[in-house]
Every structure is written in structure tokens, then in C-alpha cells.
Amino acid sequence: MEGNGAAFYDTAVILVLSLHLAWILWVILGALWTRGRRWLTVFHIVSLVWGIVVEMGPWDCPLTLAEQFFQRRAGVVPYRGSFLIHYLGAVVYPNLSVLLLTVCGVIVCAVNLLIYLRRWLAWRKMARR
User: Fold this and answer.
1) How many CB atoms lie under 10 A from the CB of residue 28?
2) H or E element: which one contains 125?
3) DSSP letters of 60-118?
4) How open is the CA angle 20-111-44, to the nearest 5 degrees?
């Protein structure tokens, strides 16, 4: 029974890491898919603000907390566990300084917000005509 429990948590770690990677890609590249989709644009802007708040504030991302919970339950320690856990973890958490990751995260969010500002200004200019 213990082996099945570990397999369940191992799978949960992979799923949460995959979701975390998808979330990161959404925050970075979401503006590419939002043009002309008002509800998706709003969701992406909220995602960007959330990303900035989490990066700049003292809070952990809920996905990080879920990963840590499942990793503890799966008995995963660094350089042990499955191939997917090890390499997805390296993509989601690259071996860079916390300051550099924070600065890069905020820059990515700010660039995306500038894209939305540019779109809004263009829309506003067209609406005046």
C-alpha cells in the first residue's frame, strides 16, 4: 500500500509541476493569445499583477506550496525521484539568484502590461475617429 501512496504523490508532483510550468508560460506569453478576447485579456492582466505581487511580496506561490506538500509526501529529495520531477523542477526553478529571478519576473510582467497599454491606446485612438 505504501508503494501505491508514493506513486500517487509522485504523479501529483509531476502534475503540479506541469501546471506551474504552464502558468509561467501563460504569464510570459499570454499576450500572444489575448488579442480580441476581452475575458482572456482581463484574466492575463490579473495573472500579470498576481505574478508581480508574488514576486515582490513575502508570499509563496500556491503552486509552489502544493509542489512542496506533494514532494514531502512522495519522499522526493534533490537528485532523487523521477526523471520528470527532476527536470521539470529545473525548468520551473532554474539555478539562478533569487534577485535575478525576481527582476526577470517583474520585467516580463511589465513588458506584457506595456503591450496591453499599447493596445488600449491604439483602440482609444481608433475610437476617437
Assistant:
1) 17
2) helix 98-128
3) PPHHHHHHHHHHHHHT--TT-S-HHHHHHHHHHS-SS-HHHHHHHHHHHHHHHHHHHHH
4) 45
Question: What pLDDT, in 10s, does the model give residues 27-85?
Answer: 989 999 998 899 999 999 999 999 888 888 888 888 888 888 888 888 876 445 554 56
Total domains in the fold of the chain: 1
The H-or-E segment that residue 55 falls in is: helix 38-56
Task: Compute the distance between CA of residue 126 and CA of residue 25 in angstroms, rounded to an integer.
Answer: 31
Average pLDDT over residues 94-118: 88
Q: Give the length of the chain.
A: 129
Range of the domain at 8: 2-128
